[in-house]
Predict the 3D structure of the following.
Amino acid sequence: MKKTELEVRLGNDYAELPRMIDSVEEFLQSHDAPSAIAYKAHLALEEMCTNIIKYGYDDANAHEILIHLCQEPNRLTIRLEDDGHEFNPLSSAEPDLDKPLAERPIGGLGIHLVKKSMSALDYRRENGRNILEMRLDY
Amino acid sequence: MQTETSKVDSIDVVAISGRLDPAAAIELKKVFTPLLSAGATKLVVDMAAVEYIGSAGLRELFFAAKSLERAGGKLVCCSLQPEVQRIFDIAGFSIPYQVFATRDEAVKGL
């Protein structure tokens, strides 16, 4: 049973996102993860880290988001840890997708896409940190 | 991301390639804005070469579609790769008159 891990530290700066995504994609490619799984991992990291950078902090200081990937046979687990204010993405409201395009609000779309793409999500608040675990079974 | 803009009769076509990530979404806005302010009403977005789209890219498509709707026009997308199609499906953006299998069908559907 092979298990490999990757840890990436991300500053709260949008400009750092592409570098982080590249290193995750490289890691997944080297483990022959299916392209659909790489897509979902990219989506989850980009949407959730963007949300943390955009809404997570009440000051203008530099912060660090800790990203941990664990690749096992047919399973990828992604853990995000940040020291922003408490935010549970799993309790955010679902966007109303039945409304006509012109009346549809935009907020919450990223979280919705991630929720629908993952096999399982788990959130907890621990020692003043948000910890979000996302699992992809395939 | 790269874009290529062309015109078929009165229809503007924007072909996008690469990753439509948040940085690319900002660039896409810069492509749509001049077309919309020049009075475009029929817009085909060809996504055959788009490998990735997230919420930021979808949002730009929403905004352009809303803006065209207000002007009495229409935006349609075509040629989605399977993973991009899946994102459209879960975003609820995949209603029949907006997404076509090929560019020819999209042009005819406008």
In short: The mean pLDDT of chain B is 93. Chain B has one domain: 2-109. DSSP finds four helices and five strands in chain B.
